[in-house]
Specification:
Shape: elongated
Helix content: 25-40%
Mean pLDDT: 79
Largest sheet: 4 strands, antiparallel
Strand order of the largest sheet: 1-8-3-6
Order of helices and strands: HEHEEEEEEEH
Low-confidence stretches: 20-26, 115-124
Length: about 230
């Protein structure tokens, strides 16, 4: 009986240890998949090394101001395909052991709507600040996936000639290796495969712990009945 109890306890500890190990070892997000942030990858652009260097240089020289270098992509959007969502895939490595800190500004707007018109509200489809802070070891590589809130384009302006501007507000302890700007179209779950796996793992862990508790209680009852039997 004690051996059986020890066996279940050992299994639970091994399972918990595995989850902790996975959390500690994985500093890379899963790359965006169809159905996660949208149904169709509507537009994408990978920034050149020179573009990234300009974003970094401008953000470092303009700390505390709102004047940042911008990288812009253009695309056509239709209200019948709402919503849209901006996603950033950022790859890099930590310079030293400590927090890696990133903050981007993404501005989505209709580039054909005159700012002086009475239709001013339709210009800003969405402004997002995408942030990430994570502790890494020196030289440790990462892939971060940062997503903005879904936004919709105005049917009155169909087809909407959209622009998405990306700027780097601040960064620290980062050596950038790549930035990709993506525009997803259609409704998405926003939950990738890894999040579902973590949820399943949590459920299994809960069931496993519950089973250990039930088995322990059953053993205690059995021990109690056996002790009373011996007393008789």
């Amino acid at each position: 009986m004690p051996n059986r109890r020890l066996n279940y306890t050992s299994k639970v500890l091994c399972f918990v240890g595995l989850l902790v190990w996975l959390v500690g070892c994985s500093h890379s997000d899963q790359l965006p998949q169809q159905g996660e942030f949208g149904q169709v990858l509507h537009q994408q652009a990978r920034l050149a090394t020179e573009d990234i260097e300009q974003l970094v240089a401008k953000s470092q020289s303009k700390q505390g101001s709102n004047d940042f270098a911008e990288y812009t992509i253009h695309y056509t959007a239709h209200s019948g395909q709402n919503p849209y969502r901006t996603v950033l895939v950022v790859q890099g490595a930590a310079l030293v052991t400590g927090d890696v800190n990133l903050k981007f500004r993404v501005d989505n707007y209709n580039s054909n709507v005159n700012s002086s018109s009475s239709n001013l509200l339709s210009m800003d489809a969405g402004v997002d600040y995408l942030e990430r802070r994570q502790k890494l070891n020196a030289g440790e590589a990462f892939t971060f996936v940062l997503d903005g809130a879904p936004f919709s384009v105005n049917a009155a302006n169909d087809p909407n000639e959209m622009s998405t501007q990306l700027s780097l507000v601040e960064s620290s302890n980062v050596q950038f290796q790549g930035i990709e700007l993506q525009i997803w179209q259609g409704k998405g779950s926003k939950y990738g495969v890894m999040r579902y796996l973590w949820f399943i793992g949590l459920v299994l862990l809960t069931l496993w712990v519950y089973r250990v508790i039930v088995e322990k209680k059953a053993d205690q009852v059995e021990d109690f009945l056996n002790s009373r039997k011996w007393k008789k």
